[in-house]
């Protein structure tokens, strides 16, 4: 079990033109980690993996455990070995991200962040599953549901990618969220404050896995796509 390696299936760039076919099963993903995030085929909701258990937050806001045969076009996973970084009190999302970078000094590394505690005015989202023929990421992401909670106890799992790799992943932070009672979560759009414990896990190795068995992926010309702008618009 290598805790210094981040596994990534697919790239966010391949989602931009609508390459949304599930090309990795959850069973396969869990062989590479017990913690992670991702999305299902056709952008079917938002995934967060905690302690080896994969949860899907769908476009109706329901939280469900998904089976081994659930397929994903994009996902990150790793084996958790977080190290304590800081305690925060009433930190805004911006301050939270800034403090992590200032203390960890990992601006040019891939790392994961985990925060547990109380989050206020939380806003998450999940996209409704689309079917073939798939539209672009920008078009598909318009059909999303946004959920809010005033104050919840939960866990944030996020990944930070260096700007050098923007497009492969989101340059900067990409956070997902799940409450302790497993009733609310999704892609974390915003929160007002967080009070709790923050830990990080840096990775010296990125294992980039590509869906080379997918003929649509192999045939696509990414030179025609506006990758960075569309990724940041959809993931912001």
From TrEMBL:
Pfam families: AAL_decarboxy. It is an enzyme of class 4 (lyase). Gene3D superfamilies: Hypothetical protein, similar to alpha- acetolactate decarboxylase, domain 2. Signal peptide: none annotated. GO terms for molecular function: acetolactate decarboxylase activity. InterPro entries: Acetolactate_a_deCO2ase. Its EC number is 4.1.1.5. Keywords: Acetoin biosynthesis, Decarboxylase, Lyase. It comes from the Bacteria. It catalyses: (2S)-2-acetolactate + H(+) = (R)-acetoin + CO2. Pathway: Polyol metabolism; (R,R)-butane-2,3-diol biosynthesis; (R,R)-butane-2,3-diol from pyruvate: step 2/3. PANTHER family: ALPHA-ACETOLACTATE DECARBOXYLASE. Belongs to the alpha-acetolactate decarboxylase family. This is Alpha-acetolactate decarboxylase. It comes from Levilactobacillus tongjiangensis.
């Amino acid at each position: 079990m290598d805790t210094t390696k981040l596994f990534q299936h697919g790239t966010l760039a391949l989602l931009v033109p609508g390459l949304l076919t599930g090309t990795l099963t959850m069973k396969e993903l869990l062989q590479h980690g017990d913690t992670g995030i991702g999305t299902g085929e056709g952008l079917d909701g938002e995934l967060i993996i905690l302690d080896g258990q994969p949860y899907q937050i769908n476009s109706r806001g329901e939280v469900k455990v998904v089976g081994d045969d659930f397929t994903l076009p994009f996902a990150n996973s790793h084996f958790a070995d977080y190290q304590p970084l800081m305690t925060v009190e009433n930190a805004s999302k911006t301050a939270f991200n800034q403090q992590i970078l200032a203390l960890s000094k990992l601006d040019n590394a891939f790392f994961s962040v985990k925060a547990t505690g109380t989050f206020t005015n939380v806003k998450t989202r999940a996209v409704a599953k689309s079917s073939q023929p798939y539209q672009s990421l920008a078009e598909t992401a318009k059909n999303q549901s946004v959920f809010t909670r005033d104050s919840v106890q939960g866990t944030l799992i996020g990944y930070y990618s260096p700007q050098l790799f923007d497009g492969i992943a989101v340059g900067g932070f990409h956070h997902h969220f799940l409450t302790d009672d497993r009733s609310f979560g999704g892609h974390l759009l915003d929160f007002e404050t967080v009070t709790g414990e923050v830990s990080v896990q840096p990775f010296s190795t990125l294992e980039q896995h590509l869906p080379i068995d997918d003929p649509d992926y192999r045939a696509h010309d990414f030179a025609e796509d506006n990758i960075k702008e569309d990724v940041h618009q959809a993931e912001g």
